[in-house]
Design a protein that fits this description.
Helix content: 40-55%
Domain Acyl-CoA dehydrogenase/oxidase N-terminal: 6-118
Structural class: alpha+beta
Radius of gyration: 22 Å
Order of helices and strands: HHHHHHEHHEEEEEEHEEHHHHH
CATH architecture of the largest domain: Up-down Bundle
Largest sheet: 7 strands, mixed
Protein name: Acyl-CoA dehydrogenase
Cofactor: FAD
Number of domains: 3
Family: Belongs to the acyl-CoA dehydrogenase family.
Pfam families: Acyl-CoA_dh_1, Acyl-CoA_dh_N
Distance between the termini: 33 Å
Length: 399
């Protein structure tokens, strides 16, 4: 295996870093997240037209670039460096793989080209704070564990009189759910006898759909509360009668592994940038007549952070090549980002503790991502369980 990046990948990284360096500084990020959409629509269209960013992982037959998951991870490492607020994660990383895996030929042909072009954005809606469970990152995504399981709560689906489907219920933490043109809603159906979870397509103008942006710790990861009141929906896939829900769960788990690798690359990029900004600061900040960075204790702390960041980057690259390792790579990267962001605030001194300082953008991203996709110890515990590290002797005999 050749682990070196190609000339095309290096050029993509360079071009993306150049664009984001000009258009996505800390001030631009703060301004973009306070717009109604939560991101800079003009910049999003520029990234779509010039680099094909939303369609990197979409097949060429559907208007995408047709690149590998490694290319998407490299791109997201750069968006992570800049903390780019955009619908890239919700659309390209979560929604596109599910539509590709589960959609009919007609659905793929209708949805993937506009998603790849950036004109259509999508969001995955799952009940409650269950995104990491639905993606099988912190536990098995058994339907009863996160999608309602026939009990109160979650989103329920029932066949409509017109041959379609009707949804009712709510989802409280939907990434980019307030601005997405299309929602992929995970809903429970079948009652007790045929309990299963299926995915449904809900356009933004569907009757009975209400959504509102929520206040979040990290404004670069906007979330919305989705309410469905007898809302018409289209099943993602061909035939609900023959669907057991196993295909949906398998697709969610596969999407989770790939998404974890991308998120790991994004977190590694953010950690690397937080470290670079801190190194730049301690080189210029003087105390007792010498730069702060010249003190041995500070050098040791920065060296430890460098090791953490490089380990996270290596793990993210490997997970992009082998998504089965996505959960472990994500744990490594989230931990590296949390530690690096915390140390950045400490090493910036008193100014770093002010909430308006740019260092807090990275601290908020670290805390919010661990709440959404972690925590780190659960990511590692689930990966260890799946690898059989904690299998008891009785379980081994049974196997």
């Amino acid at each position: 295996m050749d682990a070196a990046f190609t000339a095309e990948q290096d050029e993509m990284r360079r071009t993306l870093r150049e664009i984001l360096g000009k258009r996505c500084g800390p001030d631009e990020v703060k301004a973009a997240v306070r717009t109604a959409a939560g991101y800079d629509r003009e910049l999003w269209q520029q990234l779509a037209l010039r680099l094909g960013l939303p369609g990197i992982a979409v097949a060429e037959e559907y208007g995408g670039v047709g690149c590998t998951p490694v290319d998407l991870a490299l791109a997201c490492e750069e968006t992570g460096r800049a903390l780019l607020p955009s619908p890239l994660l919700a659309t390209a990383v979560l929604a596109v793989p599910l539509i590709t895996a589960l959609g009919t030929a007609a659905q793929r042909s209708a949805l993937l080209p506009p998603l790849a072009a950036g004109g259509l954005t999508a969001a995955l809606a799952v009940p409650g704070p269950a995104l990491s469970t639905a993606l099988a990152l912190t536990g098995e995504n058994t339907p009863g564990e996160w999608s309602g399981g026939g009990r109160a709560g979650g989103v329920q689906a029932r066949p409509g009189q017109d041959g379609g489907w009707r949804l009712y219920g709510e989802a409280a933490q939907v990434l980019d759910g307030h601005s997405a043109s299309l929602l992929l809603v995970a809903a429970h159906t079948g009652g007790f006898a045929r309990s299963r979870t299926l995915l449904f397509l809900v356009p933004e103008d569907a009757p009975g759909l209400a959504r509102a942006r929520q206040a979040t710790l990290d404004e670069t990861r906007p979330q919305a509360r989705i309410e469905l009141r007898d809302t018409p929906a289209e099943l993602l896939g061909a035939d609900a009668d023959s669907a057991t829900g196993e295909a949906v769960l398998a697709a969610l788990a596969a999407t989770g592994g790939a998404a974890a690798a991308v998120l790991a690359a994004e977190a590694a990029g953010a950690a690397g940038q937080a470290l670079a900004r801190t190194v730049e600061y301690v080189r210029g900040r003087e105390q007792f007549g010498r730069p702060v960075g010249s003190f041995q204790a500070v050098k040791h702390r920065l060296a430890d952070l460098y090791v953490q960041v490089q380990a996270a980057r290596s793990a993210a690259y490997y997970a992009a090549w082998d998504p089965r390792q996505g959960g472990l790579a994500l744990a490594q990267a989230l931990e590296a980002l949390r530690i690096t962001a915390g140390e950045a605030i400490q090493l910036h001194g008193g100014i770093g503790f002010t909430w308006e300082h740019d260092a807090h953008l990275y601290f908020k991203r670290a805390a919010a991502d661990e709440l959404l996709f972690g925590p780190v110890h659960r990511l590692r515990a689930h990966a260890a369980h799946r690898a059989g590290l904690f299998t008891t002797p009785q379980e081994k005999v049974a196997v």
